[in-house]
Amino acid sequence: MTTPGSAAAGPRGRAADSHGQAAGPRGQAAGPRGQAADSHGQAADSHGQAADSHGQSADSHGQSADSHGRAAGPRGQAAGPVGPAALRRHNLGLLLAALREGPASRAALAARTGLTRATVASLLDPLVADGVLAEVTAAPSGVGRPARPVSFAPGSPVALGISVEVDGLVGCAVGLDGRLTGLRRLPRDHRDLSAEAVAAGAGEFAAALAAGGRATAGAGRRVLGTGLALPVLLSGPAMDPLVVRAPNLPGLTGARPAAAFTGAFPGPLVVGNEATFGALAHTDVAPDLVYVSADVGIGGGLVVDGGVWRGARGFAGEIGHVVVDREGPPCGCGGRGCVEQYAGRTALLRAAGTSDLDALERALTSGDPRARDAVHRAGSALGVGLASVVNVVDLPVVVLGGTLARLVDHLLPAVREELTQRCMGHPPDRVVASRHHGTATVRGAAEAVLAEVLTDPDRLRTPA
Ligand SMILES: [Zn+2]
């Protein structure tokens, strides 16, 4: 497996000097935002060195992303480019990251990145020729030659994001411009399936998505790779992680998805935990936040300094298994009284006495007392669990995803009440629903692929 964490550790705004030193904890360099080394390998700032906020060069860990989405935190600084080829890739990555914010002229890109106009042209023109980028026709303004903004071409390549859920598959394509296309869902019960059977079904689903059809607006576009989200704990070396635990998909325990799933999907595969990918899809909400996603179970991700922090071994963020009652109901993790046993979809529907979320929403709307009690209990458990998280890590924003986002209006009063009562310092400034309507995981999975492409933008060139 490769590095979902690199989605947050991508080249955006990361300055690097000719010594290959990267920027500090928040990706800030001593110079202006997005400043880059120029084509001669010289740093743009007058000192020739990027520096973090303490005036030091990149930290001694210098590590790049690992398999669990950890690249992006304070210690996750990737080393900068070394040598002309690496520098060219780095600078092209910076330009493409800048273009992800919208069409821009070569002059504007030069100003934004600190590169010379000639360098910008030499880096981008081959991609225009390849049809990855296109020149937008701009209305002439004033005197002189009209600017010709560059943007991603309408038919430019896409990344696929596929999420294996307990009882279904979700997939989408995301363009270089960040636009999601071709969203598909397919009911499929994975609970009793082996890793191979899960891989075969998910691969078929991905292939259909890539091949197109009426439902896929991304049809026919080249696929740069696939991000595969699994609701499991992953550990081990970056290229070949091991499924350590899969409480809701026992057939995956002990599997090595990089081996079991590679070949089943279009392009190189990036495997990651579903909540890690979901958190990655929200790094634009705030640089520091807690993301909680609920499906059958509950997962979570801690976004710190703009990247997902996965802990020393990749297991951080398991908010669903924060204990709120030691004598509570048994949980798939082996413990008792975990948040998931109150606010996970299965637990919630059982407590409410409804068969699915639609029925639960109807019951809530009609004021059904059992449904209201179940949702209040879920909100309280979630609030208690989140208060513990916030007391330990002091993150000021909470984003609720998946089932929780759908029920946010009903859950929020109890969540807020517990947070206000139990947070020692300050409760979170904001508790908000994900705006991705259940697509955060697949967006994040596809974005993880795109982030890898930005660190190796030659993948965009049409294969000979
Ligand atoms: Zn548990």
Structure description:
It is built from 13 helices and 14 strands. It is α/β, with parallel strands linked by helices and 464 residues long. The protein has three domains: 4-152, Orthogonal Bundle (Arc Repressor Mutant, subunit A), CATH 1.10.10; 158-278 and 441-448, 2-Layer Sandwich (Nucleotidyltransferase, domain 5); 286-436, Nucleotidyltransferase, domain 5. A hairpin with a 2-residue loop joins β3 (158-165) and β4. α6 crosses α13 (440-455), α8 (345-352) runs antiparallel to α10 and α10 (369-393) packs across α12 (408-422). The radius of gyration is 23 Å and the shape is globular. Zinc ion (ZN) binds next to loops. Zinc ion is lined by residues 321, 331, 333, 335, 338, 340.
